[in-house]
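Run: sequence + pyridoxal-5'-phosphate -> complex structure.
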Amino acid sequence: MPRPKLALHGGTPVITEPFRRYNSFGPEETEAARSVVESGVLSQFLGAWHDDFYGGPKVQAFETAWAETFGVKHAVTFNSWTSGLVAAVGALDIAPGDEVIVSPWTMTASAAAILHWNAIPVFADIDPTTFCLDPAAVEAAITPFTRAIMAVDIFGQSADMTRLRAIADDKGLKLISDTAQSPLAQQQGRYAGTLADIGGFSLNYHKHIHTGEGGVAVTDDDSLAERMRLIRNHAEAVVEGMGVKNISNMVGHNFRLGEIESAIGLEQLKKLPALVLSRQVAANRLHEGLRGLAGLVPPRVAEGNTHAYYTYAMTLQPELMGVPRELLHRALLSEGVQGVGTGYQNLHLLPLYQKKIAFGPNGFPWTSDISQRTVDYSPGTCPVAEELHRDAFMSIGMCSYTFTDDAVDQTIEAFRKVWNNLDDLR
Ligand SMILES: *Cc1c(COP(=O)(O)O)cnc(C)c1O
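>> structure
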């Protein structure tokens, strides 16, 4: 029997129906939103030293529930995790010119939050199997000006927080984790996000659960929690009334989450374990089905970790296969595979960092006298991350579609068809 021809070469695609868009909402969220709207109180925050400084009943109930779920002392909500990251960096007393080491494989907000305080992001390379910060690269990037490490738990699993914590403690550095993509992922039985001085999560529409926009920071430290609450809500107006002694970085914003979002968040949080589990089930089915495809390395879950599978992150060995990644990608897209992409952004290569243009046109903060040395963002400074982006990385966005058993099986069939026809692509 002749092999079925690749869709790229005029054959019939394996997948002809669009997969269902991922949707974590049900009637519970509608009811939660409706009851807040009916109450007429859509936000109860007051930017003054008053009982309502900490927000209304839904905000506070959501924070309590989040802290209980993740086993932390404090959860502080924000109107986005971008806002939460800004508050986290500020709360840690990062000062202008301080260096913060961060992964280049993350969403722009991780590094922008550092720049927000006129501190300097320093990018350290990633581990080629987990795509999270490589602790050895972090150690090599430490200078006398380093004040903190921001680990990013990318794609669904935790960075190596045991080693990063040891490095941070050894050098007297603060540790932040950006766990936007990895809620309920575990490391050594503890939740990602709770293994740093401050960690946090995104409730943006694209994540496992969402409130439209929103974010939550977590910490066990009373003072850091309070400093984040201050930055969230017009700090400078209340420090006097509250008797705050350390007023550095107490430049406040309005980073407050609303009552509707918080009420929805309470419902979403209840669903989070099952939603993460459904991704793990789909990913395990993919592992089974893609097993044995030459040159395709499935996601590696580091020892001691569980994976929340925001992204099914694969590595290709194009040389072994004799087919360049972009051609494989086109062949997969032609077969109707959905949510598949290649590469991942390297933050240090963005124009902002290449040109060192952030605040105004003259290179502030890098060229100003708060900057204590010349930081190098040249191509080649994060070779693992750059090469993965260029040649080898391929992923399936697990939060873009509902990956039912049937959708997973169709995806597997399309991959196997392409791999059976590699000769036609060579
Ligand atoms: C989504 C995301 C953010 C930003 O979260 P928002 O809530 O969209 O502001 C930050 N870091 C990472 C790794 C993310 O994936």
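>> summary
The chain has a mean pLDDT of 97. The radius of gyration is 23 Å.
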